[in-house]
Amino acid sequence: MSAIESIHISGQWRTAADGGTREILDPADASPLAVVAEGGTTDADAAVAAAREAFDSGSWPGTPVADRAELLRRTADLLQRDREEIARTESRDTGKTLAEARIDVDDVTAAFRWFADLVVNEGGGRVVDAGSPDVHSVVVYEPVGVCALITPWNYPLLQASWKIAPALAAGNTFVVKPSELTPLSTIHLIRLLTEAGLPPGVANLVTGAGAPVGARLAEHPDVDLVSFTGGVVSGTAVAAAAAPTVKKVALELGGKNPNVVFADACATDEGFDTAVDQALNAAFIHSGQVCSAGSRLIIEESVRERFVAELAARADRIRLGRGTEPGVECGALVSARQLERTEEYVASALAEGAVLRCGGERPKPDALIPESGWFHRPTVLDRCRRDMRVIREELFAPILTVETFRTEREAVELANDTEYGLAGAVFSADTARARRVAGRMRHGTVWINDYHPYLPQAEWGGFGRSGIGRELGPSGLAEYRETKHVYENLRPAPVRWFAG
């Protein structure tokens, strides 16, 4: 299998400067999918230089807003044209089901279109009343400059779009570094941007590992902003690397997300069915490899046994297999290391006293589950306590833990007992209580009687160790802008402050 030219600099596709390559593996059976260039610091420097030149001397920052918006819309159309091809690539690269990957492509398309609409409908700045008819004062918004965009392995195309669409809408240039595990859909997206007519040097791509490439982008003096989505350890390293040059930093660092279920949500058969179904969706979409996964079920004690019994029974029936196969509901984990980490978490939880209700092991191979694939059965761990490792740490695994509460106050305390604060949910038939609890939960997104939906027009981001800054929404565009105040004296005259 020959290596593809996966590094894109100044409008040209190329191999790594040192000739390095990396084999990309299919999580379903560990077979090779592709061989891509393994870039390093030389490639990162070249990409930043191209982005710097395109920003300082190129046409893109000064391109009329309507034209920038039109390019985003053309890109959205191309994404839909290639929807099935991209979805299949994303499914095979990440292990997620084809149905999930198709939704990802649609969500990416929606993000490009929404940011196009946002910028084209804006005014020309904010007029400030200076208190004098002789002064014209306005606040305007300008692009930050060169942006380094570092994306994770679980939603490579989606997370790239959350950064690339607003960066381009604002008039920036960028270098994107996808995860070394799942770069293929990002490569496709850069090809589509080129096809849509983006000028050379505006969009640059370096494939490679985080240590040389991501670290260099974060510290580079010619990078004006770094946006990183990933784990908290890597995120803090990015922030530290960016600090000496005092560049803008946006970090989305995951979460440990509570799903609070009150007994009244289960008072009817329909309510019970809905709450159980949503708990499954919260925990096991994409095998739990989601930053906002509802991996902590916090259930009212009076309905715990019935709820957990039904939950475990349904989790046991989730159909595992290769994500591109019809009828498969849950795919493989992204890597052998991720599978090992999942097994380590299960073992530590059981050692600390958790009760295994289902799963807890690799599935038996069958027609849909290759023996060499990185699969783990959906797992429910009951009787968990706050001090357990499986409760404290972000798992990124098909593991759902169960905690219980008796009072509303205790439910809120449990939900907020985490260093993270990305997302959470509350299920209750009592609207006033649901809204009251949602208001007290210290998380960037809180769902009431639902789990996982997001909107491109609403901000996404977290409190605490879940990061700083916001993606999506008007704030997601503001991340990629600098604010400038222009004060114009319409009738200049001597001030006579000094007598002379």
Quick tags:
500 residues, six-stranded mixed beta sheet, 38% helix, seven-stranded mixed beta sheet, alpha/beta, 21 strands
Number of strands: 21
- Characterize the largest beta sheet: strand count, sense, and whether it forms a barrel: 7 strands, mixed
Number of helices: 15
CATH class of the largest domain reads: Alpha Beta
- Order of strands in the sheet with the most strands? 15-16-17-14-13-18-19
Assembly type of the shown chains? single chain
| CATH fold-type name of the largest domain | Aldehyde Dehydrogenase, Chain A, domain 1
At the fourth level of CATH, the homologous superfamily of the largest domain is Aldehyde Dehydrogenase, Chain A, domain 1
Domain unit count: 2
> What spatial form do the alpha-carbon principal axes imply?
globular
Structural class: alpha/beta
Give the overall average pLDDT. Answer: 97
Percentage of residues in strands? 15-25%
Low-pLDDT windows of residues: none
Q: Kindly, what is the distance between the CA atoms of the first and last residues, rounded to a whole number of angstroms?
A: 80 Å
Task: Explain what this protein looks like in three dimensions.
With 500 residues, this protein is of the alpha/beta class. It has two domains: 7-253 and 466-486, Aldehyde Dehydrogenase, Chain A, domain 1; 258-448, Aldehyde Dehydrogenase, Chain A, domain 2 (3-Layer(aba) Sandwich). The chain is 38% helix and 20% strand. The protein contains 15 helices and 21 strands. The protein has helices spanning 41-57, 65-81, 83-94, 98-120, 156-169, 184-195, 210-219, 232-242, 269-284, 304-316, 336-351, 389-392, 408-416, 431-440, 473-478, and strands spanning 3-4, 7-9, 12-14, 21-25, 32-37, 126-128, 135-143, 146-150, 173-177, 203-205, 225-229, 248-252, 258-261, 296-300, 355-358, 379-382, 399-405, 423-427, 445-448, 467-468, 481-489. The strands form five sheets. Strands 15-16-17-14-13-18-19 form a seven-stranded mixed beta sheet, sandwiched between helices. The longest helix is centred in the N-terminal third of the chain and has 23 residues, at 98-120. The termini are far apart. It holds the Pfam family Aldedh.
